[in-house]
């Protein structure tokens, strides 16, 4: 075979492998076009967190809710318009907040590099920064996501619910190419933030025909929750922090599951499968093991892509 043919063959192989990557992400995507994008986002997240300590938990949750519907395409940031009710107004998302942080970051990035950095990438950077600011691990975010043009509240029914059992959770995650380890590691995001009563009412009132309270819940813990969330309470913002160190990214969440002090059915469900139970114990014992697994799973989840454009304004399509 002549050298020219060999070169031509290798060249065609290269193009085939690149084109099959499609919307593949890369670590150096903005090196030439907007090298300071991540620094800008990080500064905005830091500044906003000093004003409101709930910002990191909100950003991490927002990214998760974005990626689970149509991939990480910033569709959760789009506003409802006309007859279309957008994702952010769907039942699981009405308690999402801090959208203004992404708006502010986008505005600053646009001023420097107009039309280059997607809202989806900005949200992925912000979620990583949220973890770092809270004392969690740092990682290099793969870049190059595009922003989606479709956002439907009706699709948010696909979000894993706090009432899910282990088989429902496994199905929800596996549909997105995520494993049981990813499920347990990403659930650890519940170390940050606050929950409204509605997400755990099912465990503390009329649990089933035999028990008023979920028997897997520590009685003292259930008693405390009942006092915060009495039956038929109309208090709009009643609820409690996800764990006692709710602004610190640590492995307390897993320790609480083992003590019967987790908030959601979906948290406690992690003890009902041998695979997930082993992982809960492992992460409860070692913050380092949890951090490493969390980073791996965040990179995997945030690499589910699906968009088509780079929005100029994160709330509206171009």
From TrEMBL:
Site (Transition state stabilizer): 61
GO terms for cellular component: extracellular region
Enzyme Commission designation: 1.11.1.7
Binding site for Ca(2+) 2: 191, 243, 250
Keywords, in A-Z order: Calcium, Disulfide bond, Glycoprotein, Heme, Hydrogen peroxide, Iron, Metal-binding, Oxidoreductase, Peroxidase, Secreted, Signal
Catalytic reactions on record: 2 a phenolic donor + H2O2 = 2 a phenolic radical donor + 2 H2O
Pfam assignment, any one: peroxidase
Protein name per its UniProtKB record: Peroxidase
Organism: Nyssa sinensis
């Amino acid at each position: 075979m002549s050298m020219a043919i060999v070169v031509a063959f290798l060249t065609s192989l290269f193009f085939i492998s690149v084109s099959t990557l499609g919307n593949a992400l890369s670590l150096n995507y903005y090196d030439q076009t907007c090298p300071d994008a991540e620094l800008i986002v990080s500064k905005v997240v830091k500044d906003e967190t000093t004003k409101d300590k709930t910002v990191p938990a909100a950003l991490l949750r927002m990214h998760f809710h974005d990626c689970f519907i149509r991939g990480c395409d910033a569709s959760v940031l789009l506003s409802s318009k006309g007859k279309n009710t957008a994702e952010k107004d769907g039942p699981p998302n009405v308690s999402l907040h801090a959208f203004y942080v992404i708006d502010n970051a986008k505005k600053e990035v646009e001023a420097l590099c107009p039309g280059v950095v997607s809202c989806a990438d900005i949200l992925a950077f912000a979620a990583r920064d949220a973890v770092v600011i809270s004392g969690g691990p740092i990682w290099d975010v793969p870049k190059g996501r595009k922003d989606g043009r479709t956002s439907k509240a009706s699709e948010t029914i696909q979000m894993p619910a706090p009432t899910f059992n282990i088989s429902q959770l496994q199905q929800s995650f596996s549909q997105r190419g995520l494993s049981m380890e990813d499920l347990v590691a990403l659930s650890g995001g519940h170390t940050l933030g606050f929950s409204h009563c509605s997400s755990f009412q099912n465990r503390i009132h009329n649990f089933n025909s035999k028990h008023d309270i979920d028997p897997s819940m520590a009685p003292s813990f259930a008693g405390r929750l009942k006092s915060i969330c009495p039956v038929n309470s109309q208090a709009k913002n009643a609820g409690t922090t996800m764990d006692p160190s709710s602004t610190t990214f640590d492995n307390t969440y897993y320790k609480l599951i083992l003590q019967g002090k987790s908030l959601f059915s979906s948290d406690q469900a992690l003890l009902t499968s041998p695979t997930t139970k082993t992982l809960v114990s492992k992460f409860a014992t070692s913050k380092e093991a949890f951090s490493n697994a969390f980073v791996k799973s965040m990179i995997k989840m945030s690499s589910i892509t699906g968009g088509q454009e780079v929005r100029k304004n994160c709330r509206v399509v171009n």
